[in-house]
Structures are given as C-alpha cells and as structure tokens.
Amino acid sequence: MKKTSLKKDIYWVGGIDWDLRNFHGYLTQRGSTYNAYLIIDEKTVLVDTVKDYLFDEMLARIEQIIDPSEIDHIVSNHVEMDHSGSIPSILEHCPGAEVITSKRGEKGLRKHYGEGLNLKPVESGESINIGKRTLTFVHTPMVHWPDNMVTYINEDRILFSNDAFGQHIASAERFDDKLEWGIIREEAAKYYANIVLPYSAQVQKALEALSGLDIDMIAPSHGIIWRKNIESILEEYGKWANSETSPDKALIVYDTMWGSTGKIARALMDGMEEDGKSVTMRNLSESHISDVMTDILDSRFVLVGSPTLNNGMLPTVGKFLTYLKGLRPAKRTGISFGSYGWGGQAPGEIEDILKDIGWDLPVEKIRVNYIPEPEDLERIREAGKELVNSIEEGQ
Ligand code: FEO
Hints:
single chain; alpha/beta; Rossmann fold; seven-stranded mixed β-sheet
C-alpha cells in the first residue's frame, strides 16, 4: 500500500471505490474515492472518513503512519455517510477523540450516530491550533447539505473542500498533474451538474468566502487533489455557479417510438447547424440522464422531445424531466417537440415543466401527426434556426 503525502506530515488516507457505478442514480463510470486526510502535529487530526465498507482500507492507511489511538480530533466537514460513515468505527480505535463539526453537523451526526459522540461544534471562521498549524473552518451550507463546512490549514495553504471541487474518479493517482485536465474537468463538470447545481447561489457565496484565502492545494472529498489547475477549476466553478453557458452549443434530448420524433430531432439539428451551432444529440433510450446533465451544463439551447404514449410522454423522458426539475439549471432556451397519432399531449407536458423551471421557450412547440412530411421537416428546420436566432449576441 503506497503512502501518499500532500505536504510534510499531511497524508491522504482515504478509500478507493474502484467498482462503484451507481451513486444514488448517478452513473459513476470511473468509480470514485472517499478522501480522508491525516495531519500529524502536536495534535493528530483526521479530516473526514470513508464509506463504512472501506473502513478497513482507511484504517490500514492510517496504521502505516501512526497508531490510530493517537488521533485527537476528527474533523467532520459533512454528515453524509460517504464521509462520516466510518466515524463510529474509527472512534473504537481512538475513543477519546473529539469530533469537530458545524452546528448543523452536530445535529446531523447525533441523528445518524446517537448521543454518545464527543462533538465540538465550531462557528464559521473559527480556528483551532494543533501545534505548528492552525485549522480554520468556514461554513459552506448546501454545498452539499446544510451542515457542510470546509477546513483550511493556514500554514500549509491547503483547503479541505469536502464535496466542492470533487469528481467521481477512482485512480491510482492522487494529484491533478498526474492525469489529463480534460478527464478531471469532465468528471468535475459531471459532479457539479448532478450534485452541486441546485445550490449554485450558495456556491457563489462559498466562492466569495474562500476568495481571500491563499490556496496551494484543494483537497476535496472525492477524486483527485488539485495542486496544478487550481485557478482553472475555480474559474470553471465560477462559470457553472453563474449559469454561464456556450451560446454556440445546443443539446437535443429525446426518445422516439417509431422514428418520427427522431426525425424531428434531426431536422432541428440540421436547422441549428446551418446557423453554425454545435449540436449534441442524446436519445434517452441509450444515454444516461447523469451524462445528459453534464451536456446541459455548457449548452445554451436545450430541446426536449417525446412522442405521445398513453396520453403523455414516454417514461424515459418523464424520468429525465423529473431529474432535471430537481437540479433546475437556469438560463436555458428551448423547444418541446414530438410526434403523435392522436391526443398529442407530450410536447405540451414537456413545455409546462420547462416553463416551470424558468426556461425561455420563444418558439411554439412542435407537434407532428404520425410521420413528418418533407414540408414538415422544412418547417422544423426553420424552427431550429428561429430558436437560435431568438437570443441576442452575448445573452
Ligand atoms: Fe460526498 Fe454530499 O457527500
């Protein structure tokens, strides 16, 4: 087992979840890690833990460095069980250790693990001295739960950011200069789109709170540690939190029964491509909704289509829209569309949901009876052009 040191006397002691492919519905095709960190000073501090089934791995990593009974403090930056799940087990090895958490963390940890924990709630901005080092805690509520906080080592300029800046990547490497930026950026974007997105207003506040810190390293609770691309990932977070998208990118999300809604989708694509847009097509019978959310993060235009089945939309499209409603990406412009034999309710239902989340739908929904004729397809291509021309440059 390889020892990983971030800086002198600061170690990564987490667990690698190589086989994870489903994180509450999110397709984690590259697995994940739960990152815990050990700081050796006059006091010994463990920052966060791992999912309970990886406790033995964390313990073995700690035992390579110290006797776990020497742990004085456990910092719990976040109650969710992928990070707090091994607190009860590690406390069996260091029963006197104090668990440092936010006030809301105190409540959450007691609900999860009972009244017996020795908890020390800290205020935002509060610091503790552990010898040569000072740890400062900054509350970052709703990034990702109400209890979240981050921990900063003033002397080493390391930010333990918990879920923020995380990515679901299982790797033998720990640092961002050992992997391609494109891969880490893509997984960080997917993580933001599927986990952090609904809390973008709180991310903006967290970024403001952290902007005064001099940061050498961002050590999140999932995936790779940032030490090379810190400025780039902060910049990406700023864009995502502000709902900044590419005005040149469009995404068409749809499903089709007998091919007609697929033909409408391709005609919309043709119209938008003729106007110079880059168009991504996602058929929901083949694409995972968590990957579609990653596409939405950068796309200014998002078009959603379904044929009508049993007086409504296809279940694949209904599932996607339920997920989308919860994540609520803002500032998108779209169209709803679909074919039908009779009834034809699906595009109207889609339109209602997109309006409900605040999207702009400047072009009338598209409905085609049975199979689109050449003149229908021409009208649809024009609708695609009309859509992309509906926003002013820079909007
Ligand atoms: Fe990685 Fe919100 O837990």
